[in-house]
Amino acid sequence: MIELGGGAAAPVGDLIKDVNEDTFMQDVVDASQEVPVIVDFWAPWCGPCKTLGPALEAEVTAAKGAVKMAKIDVDQNQMIAGQMQVQSIPAVFAFYKGQPIDGFQGALPPSEIKAFVERVIEAGGGDASGGLDDAIEAAAVMLEEGDASDAAQTFAAILEEDDQCVAAYAGLARSHLAMDEADQAEAVLNGVPAEISGDAMIEAAFAQLELARQAAQAGPLAELTAAVEANPDDLQARFDLATALNANNQTQDAVDVLLEIFRRDREWNDGAAKTQLFTIFDAIKPEDPIVLNGRRKLSSMIFV
């Protein structure tokens, strides 16, 4: 397992400062030579500033030193506001290497604020993920190499740092599935925040969960093969064989059996073969040859 959050974060006072005309050069222009500095022009009477400011501060704090923030009261610092041609507030500028590189005016939703801060960090050559991308990649390697327990612990630690991380939710669910813990995997997926629940990685993990539950109920492969050979027209036997094949990691064979069911009777059992094919396709990487060839063959049958 990879330990996260072990490094000392920069004190908030070093990351976020109230800046005036006397300290602007030091705290913005000079400071931006090392890391980007986001400048927030605000005023106590500005309603939108009261929500934008704290949201920016939260994102800057979460970046742990990859970006800094300067807060400038326009009523007290009219000369700087005039030099920056601030027409209305809130107005936000990002400085790097002494020059403004990005900015916006008015309030933004949280997702766009986060995206802005990440963009600024990346423009300064920093890691907008705070190192989490490396941890996600390492956890994925653990899972691929069969170390599901450590992978699960690492994905869980990543979620403690970023509870909007799609890859960590999907990875944690897959880790539980690898340990035959379908109920835990389902609990993880059901706990995904609504705003990211439609992501392709989450949908793929749900498909993998469905296939895992089917695998637990799959019959003996040899018996099902014999049943199909004895009665080739028994589509239920073919479907059960496909389930057993997929449970035995013979995914291509399972797809072939399902395609044959669809060829024989596409409407059988309310289109069960097609539904199962899509479940398998969703569970595999889209670029996998099994998916590409399977979708092509299915399409050719549908549009005959």
Give a verbal description of the structure.
The chain has 304 residues and is α/β, with parallel strands linked by helices. 58% of the residues lie in helices and 9% in strands. It has helices spanning 12-15, 24-30, 49-62, 78-83, 110-123, 132-144, 148-161, 166-178, 182-190, 200-217, 221-230, 235-247, 251-264, 272-283, 289-302, and strands at 16-18, 37-42, 68-73, 91-96, 99-105. It has a 5-stranded mixed β-sheet with strand order 1-3-2-4-5, with helices on both faces. Helix 3 (49-62) links the parallel strand 2 (37-42) and strand 3. It comes from Planktotalea frisia. One of its GO terms (cellular component) is cytosol.
Q: Could you provide a short overview of the structure?
A:
With 304 residues, the chain is of the alpha/beta class.
Write the layout of secondary structure elements.
Layout: H1 12-15, E1 16-18, H2 24-30, E2 37-42, H3 49-62, E3 68-73, H4 78-83, E4 91-96, E5 99-105, H5 110-123, H6 132-144, H7 148-161, H8 166-178, H9 182-190, H10 200-217, H11 221-230, H12 235-247, H13 251-264, H14 272-283, H15 289-302
Parallel strand pairs: 1-3, 2-3
Antiparallel strand pairs: 2-4, 4-5
What are its keywords?
single chain, alpha/beta, Glutaredoxin, Serine Threonine Protein Phosphatase 5, Tetratricopeptide repeat, 3 domains, 58% helix, Thioredoxin_domain
